[in-house]
Amino acid sequence: MDGDVPRKDEDTHVRVGAADVLAAQARLRRYLSATPLHHAERFGCWLKLENLQRTGSYKVRGALNALLAARERGDTRPVIAASAGNHAQGLAWAAYRLGQQAITVMPRCAPETKVAGVAHWGATVRLHGDSYDEAKAFAHELALQNDYRLLSAFDDPDVIAGQGTVGLEMAALAPDVVLVPIGGGGLAAGVALAMKAQGVRIVGAQVEGVDSMARALKGDTRAIEPVASLADGVRVKEPGHLTRKLLTDLLDDVVIVREAELRETVVRLALEEHVIAEGAGALALAAGRRVAGKRKCAVVSGGNLDAGVLATLLSEVRPRAPRRPRRRQRELAAPLQEPAIAMLLPVPTMPSDPTPAPRPRAAVAAWH
Questions:
Q1: Is residue 294 part of a domain?
Q2: Which residue of 75, 240, 244, 321 sits 20 to 30 Å from the alpha carbon of 333, by its own alpha carbon?
Q3: Domain count, the chain
Q4: Could you tell me if residue 64 is inside a domain?
């Protein structure tokens, strides 16, 4: 199948492709409902509201699909994962639903909202390191010592296939451009697998200074420490190897967003569209301002934003007023429609001679 990428995973040789996304959709349908599509008219863009997903993020799709697929293969080992928050929450919820043991390693700087969300579903939480990559190294060490299954947040075929179900749910909209945030690349790779055959342009979004995938796709594979960003969910030093291979073939472009643009987009989403999105969740929409398309759709990937951070943003960021919308030609050409109530009232006519206008009482009588 076109777009399939081979992977060596222990003793098995695994491929991930569009068929795996369809299989993931069949598995997840019993547990997860489709998230809504919302037209953000002031942005001129449709939104796929994954912030309304279980645990507040699309990540639960990949985690749940990975656990279900492993169970089909007879692998019932405890699962461990490193995460900045959303993957850990998704894994915790999935393990709770399936009655499995899950361990999550999160960096000490992880938002309190996300740490509390993981603990709520009964998963074991280990805080280690000051970045996702340090947490990832510690999780790998624990997996080797205890024979846990290490589940990558993005560089795993089952995870990629699960995230791709976001794309299948957007297919009914028939978009010409889909905008996706990129950290390690799992969501972008899955969506690209699901939608590329339909002729949809797939555009990734990263933050300035947090752009490891964009650099890797250009051949720069240096592990550079990402800068601090509101988009903590995409702060990855090294992107996935599987995802990079997929995106090399399937991704049309990557847009680099400035931090100020991202902060403004989070505030505008809250004030104008009444949508609460975390930094990474608003990233694709922020990139959409630079991408042309007749029917654009941006994935709002998560909404797990600390209340204190949101309060600070609302007090500090003053978004620019949106441009006045252009009136479409067909709207100008169409005759003006009378208000519904005007259709009920008698239409006054201008007499040819200067006779007095009828009294209001006559107009009232016409109602009866």
A1: yes
A2: 321
A3: 1
A4: no
Residue whose entry in the numeric block shows the structure tokens 């960021």: 317
360 lies in a domain? no
pLDDT digits (tens, 9 = 90+) for 236-286: 899 999 999 999 999 999 999 999 999 999 999 999 999 999 999 999 999
- CATH code of 257's domain: 3.40.50.1100
Phi-psi map region of 85: left, alpha, beta (phi>0 left; psi -120 to 50 alpha) = left
Domain around 176: 157-316
Annotated catalytic residue, options 48, 59, 114, 196 = 59
Distance CA 25, CA 154 (A): 17
Confidence of residue 296 (pLDDT cuts 50, 70, 90): very high
In the annotation, is 33 catalytic? no
Of the residues 57, 152, 212, 301, only one is catalytic, namely: 301
In a domain, 48, yes or no: no
83 is known as an active-site residue: no
Give the Cβ contact number of residue 282 at 10 Å: 35
Q: Are 231 and 283 in contact (CB under 8 A)?
A: yes
